[in-house]
Amino acid sequence: MKKILLLSDTHSHIDDRILAYAKKADEVWHAGDIGDLRVTDALQKIAPLRAVYGNIDDHEIRNEFPLNNRFNCEGVDVLITHIGGYPGRYSPAIREELYAHPPKLFICGHSHILKVMPDRKLNLLHMNPGAVGTHGFHKVRTMLRFTVDQGKIDNLEVIEMKRD
C-alpha cells in the first residue's frame, strides 16, 4: 500500500503546510504548473516525486519533467498530464491516448477546480486536485490524498487550506 499526496498548480509556491502533508505520504504526485524547481526540489527531499510540466513552466522544468507521465503504482495504471479536461470533455492533446489505452486513474491539473469523477465509458477515475498555490482565481487551496493498494484506489481525502 502507498499513501499518495496529489497536488497541482503550485505556481512557484511551497510552504510548511504543503511539506507537512508530503511528510505523511509515500509518494507525491504533481500535475503541473510547478513554476520553480525549488518547489519540486523541496518535495523530493521528503518523498519520491512523480510530476509533469504545465503550460506556465519554463524550459528548465520541461527538461526535468515530461508532458505526460504514465506509470504503474501498486497495480493501478496511472496517467498524469497537466491539461487533460474531464470525462466527456477531454483535451484533444490527450484524448486519443485515453481512448486507445485508458488508464485506471487519469490525473490532470490546470483548471484550479478540484474534481474527482468516474468516467464510466472508459472505466477510469478522473482526478484534478485543484490548485495549492497562491496564484489564480481559486479561493481555497486544495490537494488530494489517497491510498493505492493491490489495484484499488481508496481512502480519498480532500485537503483544503485558506489562501493567505
TrEMBL record:
Which EC number applies? 3.1.4.-
Query: Quick check: keyword Manganese in the entry?
Result: no
An example Pfam family from this entry, by short name, is: Metallophos_2
Sections of the chain in a coiled coil: none
The reply on keyword Electron transport is no
Cofactor entry: a divalent metal cation
Superkingdom of source: Bacteria
Provide the family line. Answer: Belongs to the metallophosphoesterase superfamily. YfcE family.
According to UniProt, the name of this protein is Phosphoesterase
Q: Which organism is it from?
A: Leeuwenhoekiella parthenopeia
